[in-house]
Design goal:
The protein contains seven helices and three strands. The chain is mostly helical and 169 residues long. Strands 1-3-2 form a three-stranded antiparallel sheet. Strand 2 and strand 3 form a beta hairpin. The longest helix has 28 residues.
Length: 169
Amino acid sequence: MEQDDWADRHVARWRDHWIDVDFEDDVEAIVVRIGRLTKHFRAVKQQALVEVGLQDFEYDTLHLLMIRDTPGQASPSALAADLEISNAGMTGRLDSLERAGWIQRRADADDRRRVEVEITRAGVAIWRRAMDLRGRGEDAVVRALSAEERATLAGLLKKMTLRVEGEAD
């Protein structure tokens, strides 16, 4: 017999309360499980950041710097757009990261009025430490599935995210 999880108990608890609402057990269970996993993965990320001594905004900025088409380099305005913050907010973040020695600002070689942000070796090192810890925590959960199950789940989640992305366009 399969063990019940929190979502099963949640659905059972609420099923009878929604008599006048179209309540589908499987939809509710999926949404609740995704929410629980999201909460868990946020906690895993937070623990990794605490362990390496990064704040959310520092990690997020370093992460976006590293996952670009030109890893480790970007303009402040491109980073601000990616992070969905104002240019003034970006300046504050960059000031903090620069003081910590994790990034440096350089004048653009072609246009000295423009500034480029570049991650330093220290910035790469702390980002990689956080990524390693975060990755271990994520793997511990995802490895509950076989390789075939992971591929199936990845495909199903992609189908759902494509639906969301299509609605956003």
